[in-house]
Amino acid sequence: MEIFNDFSIKEIxxxxxxxxxxxxxxxxxxxxxxxxxxxxxxxxGKASITAGVIMIVFLFVGNKILKLIGVDVNxxxxxxxxxxxxxxxxxxxxxxxxxxxxxxxASIVPIAFPLVAGAGTLTTTLSLRAEFHDINIxxxxxxxxxxxxxxxxxxKWLENKMGExxxxxxxxxxxxxxxxxxxxxxxANFAQLVQNYINF
Length: 200
Description:
Strand content: under 5%
Distance between the termini: 34 Å
Membrane topology: Multi-pass membrane protein
Helix content: over 70%
Subcellular location: Cell membrane
InterPro entries: Multi_antbiot-R_MarC
Pfam families: MarC (PF01914)
Transmembrane segments: 12-35, 47-69, 75-93, 105-123, 135-152, 173-194
Radius of gyration: 17 Å
Oligomer: single chain
Number of helices: 8
Number of strands: 0
């Protein structure tokens, strides 16, 4: 199949790391544990598969929506860069810019959406299309879905082993990585927009 001609380990790793940092499932372990205590056992398989499906569907449908409203991928990627930038600031500074509503269910809402496949993740997923091939983004999503499943299954154990201090440090480290990614995403797509404007 032609789609596999674009297969790239480097792109898969990059897509995985970008989405991993945005999803920040490790940093969300305390939230998951809290939801387990409030709503009972969370169905890890159901939650992770639902989140993965949402991300993959949006990867393709989202682009069609953009074309319908007349927005190009580069412009959307720049908007996505701003969203990722804000998420990174939240992670680094420990502030909450995006207020989330109180949970009323567990496995699908709010675990699958919006905790895993939230606005930031979906925006990032579509923004990646400006630089990477679909097959590599999909594999990056699948790998993250597997990782999310493993974390959800062992959330309580992870919290006990790692502790709040370690989780906080990891969150800040991934926040800095995410900040750098957002700047790269912005500069690359802004340069492309300028080039397209000049050529136009």
